Amino acid sequence: MKRKCLILALLIIGCLLFLQTGCQEQAKSTAVIKPGEPAPKITFENTAFDFGEVGPNRKNTGQIKFTNTGDALLKITKVEECCGIVTKLDKKEYAPGESGALQVEWNSGPRESTMKRDLTIHSNDPITPSAILTIKAKVMLQVVWEPERLRLFLDEENSGCPKITINCLDNRPFSILEFKSTDDCITADFDSSVEATKFILEPRVNTEAMPKNNKGRVNVNLTHPEGKIATILFNVLPKYTVRPSLMIVWDAQPEMPIVKQVDVLNNYRKDFEIESVSSKGNIVGIKLLEQRKIPNGYRLDLELTPPAAGNQASFKDDFSVNIKGGEELPISCNGRYSIRKSKPKI
């Protein structure tokens, strides 16, 4: 009983000390100035600074002016900067009536966007010890292009790739320095010595050089100071789709077959034949039990046989659905063994 009372008393003392410390800290942060006692006061010309519309890829600078309108020395202890914003003060102490300015610098990005950031200025102003300032701007592109994304098809001439138009909004002539695409699968002719306010490019698509994931980008480098690059994303509708492309096997039993279904579809509505299925790593046994015709493809019943577990809790393998004609469609398999012990085979 005495031990319980002692513990309770210690807890009460700890809470009182905690509350006292908290009150002391609060008193420090919200110090009360006695009537007639001199105190600093930071007054801003504006608490929000709007850069307005700015161009991309540009260093932007500005300043936020303030004055010590109090009657004691103003001391700025810290300026909390937000991501991408750099600030600078000429000095940190200002006499009564003295003015100063916070220099602000930031770099606009390559795309059209709206920027809004907050800065916090800490000082010995008892009324506003932490003043919050807002910085905002709107990044406007001076060079635009269309289309902004390419959708390519393997069964169309030149993959159905349209012309690319690039023009400026400020009528400032520029030239094209480089046309570069992922794996160089898309190219276009241009003359870097020619300057104009508008270009129309005719891309050529090499389907054999397309990236394996059927996605990429085209970067057109320009000499325009406020639009140095035009980026166009592209993707290709693949010939085949496998659903699911990742098979998950839960509660697997070592060397006990299970059956999974997979759909193989031709996205261009072409007839095809499935020749076989196989394992890349020869870890999981795989057998094609049956294939049934469905719209635009086949539904496969696959028998999977997990390997002996040993000390492993999981297994993985890569499969391939082999299309007649040589094309191989990948499927990944991840499995986890059941925590229940399997019965020994008789």
Low-confidence stretches: 18-31
Reading off the top of the CATH hierarchy, the class of the largest domain is best stated as Mainly Beta
**DSSP summary, beta strand count:** 26
Major beta-sheet overview: 5 strands, mixed
User: What would CATH call the homologous superfamily of the largest domain?
Assistant: Immunoglobulins
In helices, the fraction of residues equals: under 10%
CATH topology heading of the largest domain? Immunoglobulin-like
Strand order, biggest sheet?
Answer: 2-9-8-4-6
Would you identify the CATH architecture of the largest domain?
Answer: Sandwich
Count of discrete structural domains: 3
Q: Which whole number gives the mean pLDDT?
A: 88
The percentage of residues in β strands lies in over 45%
What general outline do the C-alpha atoms trace? flat
Distance between the termini: 64 Å
Write the layout of secondary structure elements.
Blueprint: H1 2-29, E1 42-44, E2 48-54, E3 59-68, E4 74-80, E5 85-89, E6 93-94, E7 99-107, E8 113-123, E9 130-139, E10 143-146, E11 149-153, E12 164-168, E13 176-181, E14 186-187, E15 198-201, E16 204-205, E17 215-222, E18 229-237, E19 240-243, E20 246-252, E21 258-266, E22 274-279, E23 285-294, E24 297-305, E25 314-323, E26 328-337
Parallel strand pairs: 2-9, 11-18, 20-26
Antiparallel strand pairs: 1-3, 3-7, 4-6, 4-8, 5-7, 8-9, 10-12, 12-15, 13-17, 14-16, 17-18, 19-21, 21-24, 22-25, 23-24, 25-26
